[in-house]
Recover the amino acids of this structure.
């Protein structure tokens, strides 16, 4: 198994601390009523931003157990530092691929929360089956993503086209490099929102929340996401991270000014589904 050590410099922390992003995730947790359960898995927990939001919502911290699962050791370490020592609630940091959920978390749980990560997994059917097995009857599976076909509203497309073209031009002109499309990760092939709903329904879940929420993403959102390794590898495959980040951030600054932008919209999908 290839467990990942993410470079600290290119992690998700600066993006995940932005207020607009916190609101997006709070919306999922509140729609799914996360907080009343006793045993909760935070899948793909990253540096602990969602774990913190779950902790804030606990109706009774006593006897609550949270399993925070990620394959990045640096992300887990940052999460543990961020959350600190909590005497009243057990937070277990689990170093594992999400695809090994069955073996990684032995307990049956009341909720599995999976924020902004489901799009990474190539075999989603297999993972959703594991999540269902992991849940107690009545347990909920709550996830959100902004990586699906349709997450870019029409009025954001011109910005994206211009941003990518400009950044690729900067990459070539200033660094003498081009992106290698053949290096694009297969798992980034995107489903439609309806495909995600069908995925959970076909696994036998009852969908309780199916929410499409248009979010106005500010400049700093696009700026910080340009420093996240997964984003750089997705839009500039094969390009060294430091160079990709610089080209994307330079291109962004230029296009943002030229188009006189305040925000660019993106649509987040939030789903909550119950195990019968
Ligand atoms: C975009 S971040 C999301 C973090 C957090 N859930 C949030 O919503 O802010 C994705 C996280 O998923 C983790 N990840 C991606 N693929 C994974 C896999 N196959 N197994 C375990 N963790 C994975 C990455 O290490 C990263 O921490």
């Amino acid at each position: 198994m290839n467990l990942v050590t993410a470079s600290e410099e290119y992690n998700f922390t600066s993006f995940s601390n932005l207020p607009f992003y916190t609101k997006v995730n709070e919306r999922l947790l509140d729609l799914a009523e996360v907080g009343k359960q006793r045993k909760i898995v935070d899948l793909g927990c990253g540096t602990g931003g969602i774990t913190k939001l779950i902790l804030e919502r606990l109706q009774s911290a006593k006897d609550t157990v949270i399993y925070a699962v990620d394959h990045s050791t640096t992300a887990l370490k940052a999460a543990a530092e961020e959350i600190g020592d909590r005497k009243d609630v057990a937070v277990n940091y689990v170093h594992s691929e999400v695809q090994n959920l069955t073996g990684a978390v032995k307990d049956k749980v009341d909720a599995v929360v999976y924020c902004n990560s489901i799009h990474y997994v190539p075999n989603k059917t297999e993972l959703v089956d594991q999540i269902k097995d992991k849940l107690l009857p009545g347990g909920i599976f709550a996830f959100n993503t902004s990586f699906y076909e349709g997450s870019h509203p029409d009025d954001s497309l011109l910005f994206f086209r211009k941003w990518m073209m400009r950044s690729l031009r900067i990459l070539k002109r200033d660094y003498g490099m081009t992106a290698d499309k053949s290096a694009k990760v297969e798992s980034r092939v995107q489903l439609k929102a309806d495909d995600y709903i069908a995925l959970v329904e076909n696994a036998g879940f009852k969908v309780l929340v199916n929410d499409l929420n248009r979010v106005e993403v500010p400049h700093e959102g696009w700026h910080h996401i340009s420093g996240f390794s997964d984003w750089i590898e997705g839009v500039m495959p094969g390009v060294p991270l430091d160079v990709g980040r610089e080209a994307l951030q330079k291109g962004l600054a230029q296009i943002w000014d030229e188009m006189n932008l305040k925000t660019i919209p993106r649509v987040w999908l939030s789903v909550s589904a119950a195990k019968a």
About this structure: DSSP finds eleven helices and seven strands in the chain. The first strand starts at residue 39 and ends at 43. The CA atoms of residues 71 and 96 lie 5 Å apart.
